[in-house]
User: Which sequence fits this backbone?
């Protein structure tokens, strides 16, 4: 075997090793117990794939590559250290976009090179470029919405038709490129249309649907990377992109199912805007003092805690765990109920609770915990809203009708910690707050939980 052949074999083997590490890392991330090590496995795979690229035949611009890796690494490390958990959803949206943008850039470079490539090569480059561009611009809009830079959704009559026309125009140009027609102007036009499509698709979607949108663009980014892996004949990109694309697709389906809505409904219905008008709940809000709520919980037999985005904003997860420990010491059985779309991204609440040190065996998903609410003395809702709204079961006219919810209203007593009397992220009035067995504990999540802790300590 020649030296060149041996070197190429070593490169390909390294890419397969990197792909193996990606897959094993993703597998280990499926369990909270092994998630941390899974991240390290996947990170090692990325390191292997990056380093072996420097040995690729014909590779140049080492100074430019090293500089880019250094700048990107420093920025990633800095943002990873500084960005709070409450802002992690928009950070993930931004990183999704960067992946899609990178795939689109690879496609653009390969297409602009020309060189008489086969139709299959051009087709893969076009598909990866289109999908990556949509993911890039769409993810930036998702980031802007979650970060509060874009405060309203932009809708107009015939918007879906306009989106379809943009898609058909971009696809038509792509088809002409595959057939060997069109030059650089056509390539640029195709990418501009794809970027525009990402904008026009995402701008109408409201903030309440962002968790589904984030997972969808994650899937699209993986798919784009997989296509570009074929273009570059890079096994690691093919395998990693395929795995990410399939995992993102499955997660998107699960998220949509958790909201009892189809993906098409999320993308085209316009629901999810914070200005959605909800029906008027009947009854009155009944406040409670922290001391009374603490006594109620201290002498309960079972307490189920329902965390939501309000807990994340208040950074109350550590105090919630301290409260849990106090109640457990008093013989109270405490469990956590997690809705699949609680927070602003998939698994948001799980990550926050894990950060605080809450044991995994105390955390239950909707299907596991819902039947237990009827036997719970107290359901403590901290910053959750739409995922505990009974209108999802009772009001066919409600936009969230049919969405599976946590049955907090079926507990003997329900205490809701909330800053004020406003509606949730979707803008729908919450019927739970007006029920006879519900009491409202107004105030900052962390401050109120701390008051509960102090009162229980004094009992």
Assistant:
């Amino acid at each position: 075997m020649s030296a060149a052949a041996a070197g190429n074999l070593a490169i390909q083997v390294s890419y397969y090793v990197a792909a193996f590490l990606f897959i094993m890392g993703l597998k280990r991330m499926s369990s909270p117990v092994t998630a941390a090590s899974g991240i390290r496995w996947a990170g090692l795979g990325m390191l292997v794939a990056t380093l072996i690229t420097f040995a690729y035949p014909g590779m140049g611009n080492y100074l430019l590559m090293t500089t880019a890796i250094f700048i990107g690494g420093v920025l990633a490390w800095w943002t990873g250290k500084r960005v709070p958990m409450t802002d992690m959803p928009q950070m993930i949206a931004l990183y999704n976009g960067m992946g899609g943008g990178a795939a689109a850039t690879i496609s653009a470079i390969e297409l602009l090179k020309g060189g008489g490539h086969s139709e299959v090569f051009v087709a893969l480059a076009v598909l990866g470029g289109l999908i990556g561009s949509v993911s890039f611009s769409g993810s930036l809009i998702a980031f802007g919405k979650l970060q509060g830079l874009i405060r309203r959704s932009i809708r107009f009559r015939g918007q879906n038709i306009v989106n379809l026309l943009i898609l058909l125009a971009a696809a038509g140009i792509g088809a002409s490129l595959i057939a060997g027609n069109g030059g650089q102007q056509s390539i640029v036009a195709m990418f501009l249309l794809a970027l525009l499509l990402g904008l026009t698709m995402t701008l109408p979607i409201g903030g309440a649907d962002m968790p589904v949108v984030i997972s969808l663009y994650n899937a699209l980014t993986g798919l784009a990377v997989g296509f570009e892996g074929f273009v570059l004949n890079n096994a690691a990109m093919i395998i990693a992109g395929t795995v990410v694309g399939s995992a993102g697709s499955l997660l998107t389906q699960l998220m949509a199912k958790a909201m009892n809505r189809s993906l098409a409904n999320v993308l085209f219905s316009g629901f999810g805007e914070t200005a959605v008008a909800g029906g008027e709940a009947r009854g009155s809000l009944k406040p409670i003092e922290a001391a009374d709520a603490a006594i109620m919980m201290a002498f309960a037999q079972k307490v189920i805690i329902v965390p939501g985005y309000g807990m994340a904003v208040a950074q109350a997860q550590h105090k919630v765990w301290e409260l849990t420990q106090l109640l457990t010491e008093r013989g109270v059985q405490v469990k956590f109920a997690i809705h699949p779309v609680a927070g602003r991204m998939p698994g948001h609440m799980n990550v926050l609770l894990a950060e605080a040190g809450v044991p995994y065996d105390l955390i239950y998903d909707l299907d596991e915990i819902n039947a237990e609410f009827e036997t719970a003395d107290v359901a403590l809702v901290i910053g959750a809203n739409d995922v505990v709204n009974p209108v999802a079961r009772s009001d066919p006219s409600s936009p969230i009708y049919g969405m599976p919810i946590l049955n907090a209203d079926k507990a003997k007593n329900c205490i809701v910690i909330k800053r004020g009397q406003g509606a949730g992220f979707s803008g729908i009035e919450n019927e739970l707050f007006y029920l006879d067995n519900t009491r409202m504990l107004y105030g900052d999540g962390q401050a109120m939980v701390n008051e509960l802790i102090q009162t229980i300590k004094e009992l």
